[in-house]
Design a protein that fits this description.
Layout: H1 4-32, E1 41-46, E2 50-58, E3 61-68, E4 77-85, E5 88-95, E6 101-107, E7 118-125, E8 128-137
Antiparallel strand pairs: 1-2, 1-8, 2-3, 3-6, 4-5, 4-7, 7-8
């Protein structure tokens, strides 16, 4: 014979187990879907004639600044290649005719890929070529 009291007790027990399972699975989903908080990053590097700095103040924008630090007059134009990864290369022509530094703004259209610990940069000008490595720096 089934007593109404024990049947109701079993239903209550199953209901509580179901609620606890839902709460535990919600906690698990919340933890796994959390995106790490973005932190500002600064990189810099220099060669005999060039200084390059990268500021990443937002997760979707990176700003590079290239300056000529060599002796003599600055070249009016130069070519650059920035290797954030083997398949993510930023290249182009920079102009210093009317300014002391050339700025490159990169908008990733969403969160940018993570940066490596070192970023190779190649600069060519007037038949010369220099390579440098940008390394993590702290804003001064």
């Amino acid at each position: 014979m089934i007593y109404p009291c024990s049947l109701r007790g079993n239903k209550l027990f199953l209901f509580l187990c179901f609620i606890i399972t839902l709460m535990l699975s919600a906690c698990t989903v919340e933890k796994s879907s959390k995106i790490p908080e973005f932190k500002e990053q600064y990189f810099e590097g220099k060669s005999n004639n060039w200084y390059v700095m990268l500021e990443s103040k937002q997760d979707n924008i990176r700003n590079y600044s290239i300056s000529y630090i060599g002796e003599g007059s600055k070249p009016p134009t130069f070519e650059y290649e920035i290797y954030e990864s083997s398949d993510d290369i930023t290249s182009g022509v920079g102009y210093l005719e009317t300014q002391d530094e050339f700025d490159i703004g990169i908008n990733c259209g969403g969160p940018c890929r993570a940066l490596p610990k070192k970023i190779p940069v190649v600069i060519q000008w007037e038949g010369k070529k220099e390579e440098m490595m940008l390394k993590i720096s702290y804003k001064k």
